[in-house]
Write a structure and sequence with these properties.
about 350 residues; CAP/MinC_C; 13-stranded parallel beta sheet; single chain; TBCC; elongated; cytoplasm; Tubulin-specific chaperone C-like; two-stranded antiparallel ribbon
């Protein structure tokens, strides 16, 4: 019996002796694994630090380059206007081209810019665009529009004629400008190429073709109950003080600016959209960077659906990416909450979207 117990105790001790080397052998493995994890963490921190440093260097380069170019453009805008109308128009077009290049520089830098710096740059660009529009109005005489029938012998069929309403009130039928021509009054022929757009019009169909607007700044202002069709690829599009109207435009190379509009429907491709002080409007949009709303309410978005012969060629002229559309990426500068959607804009449900434009 004693011999049997001794044998069992001996086996137990031998078993514990075998386990101890295994445990000791696993200690270096754990240490090696822990050291490896520490090295990987150090490597991640190093990469993060280098990435942050590169981003800061890119941001510093952007800030210095953008500020210098902005100052140069502001200096050009502040220059005097003692020159012939033709040379002034050329100088303003050069300024417009530099603003477009600055806009492209900003779009290419969006991926690494802090949000605050991005907004500051976008605001600066808008001021440059507004300054260019004001300078154009100061230095170049405004074109006086006159509508005349193409068919001189026609019995004034294209003229605006009143229709009776109940109670004796009258309303005018819209004029379709596809049957009318827009001409400058005598003495202002030098500024025809510089002036582009429509203003102070009520209840009309207004049309411009590619040869009139391609790579030019277009201004639509103080329109009411109008339909505007712009076939071509303008440089920029400004829409101000427009209500109850439909604005259709081909690809815009740089930015579209909408301000103080209500009850409107817009459709256009562009590089960037900035919308201010606008209410109860719809935008059928193709935008390659982002859309921005500020001080707006009831603005609704859907993808661009308007089409016309020559649209693909106009996309090529504009330089916009046909396959890239960020129409749902809208920044509301009045809504900073990240955990709730902005109440100032929304997406148009598919069943409510306009797909035919007659």
């Amino acid at each position: 019996m004693d011999q049997l117990v001794a044998i069992e105790v001996g086996e137990t001790c031998q078993g514990n002796g075998d386990a101890e080397p295994d445990r000791m052998a696993r200690i270096p493995e754990r240490l090696q694994k822990r050291d490896q994890e520490r090295q990987e963490e150090l490597e991640r921190r190093k990469e993060a630090k280098e990435s942050k440093q590169v981003t800061e260097e890119k941001s510093d380069f952007f800030t210095s380059t953008f500020s210098k170019e902005k100052a140069d453009i502001e200096e050009l805008l502040a220059g005097g206007g003692e020159a012939e109308s033709g040379s002034l128009a050329g100088r303003l077009e050069d300024i417009s081209a530099r603003i477009q290049q600055l806009q492209k520089f900003l779009n290419d830098s969006m991926v690494f810019l802090p949000q605050y710096e991005l907004r500051q740059a976008q605001s600066a660009l808008q001021k440059l665009q507004s300054g260019l529009a004001e300078k154009r109005g100061e230095l170049l005489p405004k074109k006086k529009f006159a509508f005349r029938s193409r068919n001189v012998g026609a019995n004034n069929t294209n003229k605006e004629t009143p229709e009776p309403r109940k109670g004796g009130e009258q309303v005018s039928r819209p004029i379709d400008l596809t049957d009318a021509s827009v001409t400058a009054s005598p003495g202002n022929s030098n500024d025809v190429s510089a002036q582009c757009g429509f203003s102070n019009v009520v209840s009309q169909v207004l049309i411009k073709r590619a040869d009139e607007i391609n790579q030019r700044d277009v201004l639509l202002t103080h329109l009411s109950s109008c339909t505007v069709k712009l076939f071509g690829a303008p440089s920029t599009l400004h829409i101000k003080h427009v209500r109850d109207s439909t604005i259709l435009c081909g690809p815009v190379s740089s930015s579209v600016f909408i301000d103080h509009c209500s009850g409107c429907t817009f459709a256009f491709p562009c590089q960037q959209l900035r919308t201010h002080n606008t209410t109860d409007s719809r935008a059928y949009l193709h935008v390659t960077s982002r859309a921005i709303v500020e001080d707006c309410s009831g603005v609704r978005f859907a993808p661009f659906t308007w089409s016309y012969p020559g649209l693909e060629e106009d996309f090529q002229v504009s330089g916009l990416d046909r396959e890239r559309n960020n129409w749902t990426q809208v920044d509301d500068f009045n809504w900073l909450a990240s955990d709730a959607p902005s109440p100032n804009w929304s997406v148009i449900p598919e069943e409510e979207r306009k797909t035919t434009w007659v």
